[in-house]
Amino acid sequence: MTTRRSCLAFLIALIAGPAAGQAVVVASQQGARLTRIEGEAVTGSFTVPASPAVVAADGRGRLYVSHPDGRAVSVIEPDGAVRRLPLPAQVFGLAVEPDGSRLYVGDWSGHRVLCLSLPTGAVAGEIPVGPDPAGLVLGEPGRLYVAEREGRSVGVIDTGALRRVGGLPVGDGPFALAYDPDLARLYVANVRSNDVTVIDAAARQVLATIPVGTAPYGVAVVSGGGRVLVTNQHAASVSVIEARALAVSATIPVGRYPEGVAILGRFAYVANWFSDDVSVIDLAARKEVRRLPVAEGPRTLAVARIAPPEAAR
Fold first, then answer.
1. Beta strand segments in 129-204, E
2. Which of 121 and 307 is assigned the larger pLDDT?
3. What ranges do the domains of the chain cover?
4. CATH architecture of 4-312
5. Cα–chain center distance at 279
6. Does the pLDDT of residue 311 top 60, yes or no?
7. At a CB cut-off of 8 Å and minimum separation 6, what does 164 contact?
8. Residues 6 or more apart from 144 whose CB is under 8 A from it?
9. Distance CA 204, CA 280 (A)
10. What is the rounded average pLDDT of the residues 215-233?
11. What DSSP string runs through 103-138?
């Protein structure tokens, strides 16, 4: 069972860690645990409510975890307190404003996105979207993107008006999204057509469709590095896309059924669902340098920029 003491120790280690308060947090679905990774080592873990799906972090010290089966979101405060926000939804995808003022929650079976006011968790709005919303990502100011898995589209949401203002055609089974603020591009991993759609967000135009491995399931942008990493679930690999060339330049073997991917510093981290571990990839060398065992069923990751408790008040 989760204790406030174990959770607080987990967060304190983030604050005091060598990465200036940054670490990667991994959510293990079957193991119902969050695991903290710094550099090439596991440095802590604690139990969360059953079947965590997606983990997200804001810039003020809070973590958020969705529980589709439990129809709730767990909020983990900087002081170690864990709150449950029950919702009338099969909650899955999450996106949180950096200042921690709002949390956007995808309702998988309800075909909508809920906007929650934080820290109370009150529902501030409900936005109808396409069928089976999966990944969510914040883009340019005032824009939220949602992968509409069964609609072969990405919904565009105006976060000021809290309404869907358009859709962008993509491949079959869009699941994961990543936004590159340097190039103002959106990357969409299409799990059934085995490709990535690249969108010019400002022009709302498709720039390219890039073939990758089988069942691309996660995507992340290397900040300032001109590269994008895509996990290939059925191929047990990661494709490296060169952003300017819009082409795959390398394929990196990882564990079984890779899903989420996150980047921090000189490493990329890949959650391998079926092998119960996380691959650590050296971005410069473009190879896996470590395999870290974690709790059963790791699926998603987030970079946690943990602030001291005083900053979150």
1. 133-138, 143-148, 153-158, 163-169, 174-180, 185-190, 195-200
2. 121
3. 4-312
4. 7 Propeller (2.130)
5. 16
6. no
7. 127, 128, 129, 155, 156, 157, 158
8. 95, 104, 113, 136, 137, 138, 156, 157, 159
9. 34
10. 95
11. EEEEETTTTEEEEEETTTTEEEEEEE-SSSEEEEEE
